Amino acid sequence: xxxxxxxxxxxxxxxxxxxxxxxxxxxxxxxxxxxxxxxxxxxxxxxxxxxxxxxxxxxxxxxxxxxxxxxxxxxxxxxxxxxxxxxxxxxxxxxxxxxxxxxxxxx
Length: 107
Prior knowledge:
- The chain is mainly alpha-helical.
- It is built from five helices and two strands.
- The chain has helices at residues 6-20, 42-61, 68-79, 82-87, 95-103, and strands at residues 28-30, 64-66.
- It has a two-stranded parallel sheet with strand order 1-2.
- Helix 1 packs parallel to helix 2 (42-61) and helix 1 packs across helix 5.
- The two termini are 22 Å apart.
């Protein structure tokens, strides 16, 4: 499975923060998001858990927190459709992807 469990995700994001924080001026923690306006959807609920990990780690380490899930939600409400969000340039690139790269860096 390609799933990244919550504890593993948190450890990997925190490891990335700790590895670079002394050599950069600032760190942006950008949340993963799921393009689903229904907050009761199972996958959306899971994504909200990843968002909370990002929020907590950003606060703990003084990082700039960027909540893409919240931005998507606001855009979906404003535009009333998923298609309009897709046309507006919102993508599904996430820190979950970065988490996988961190675990298996390209050669």
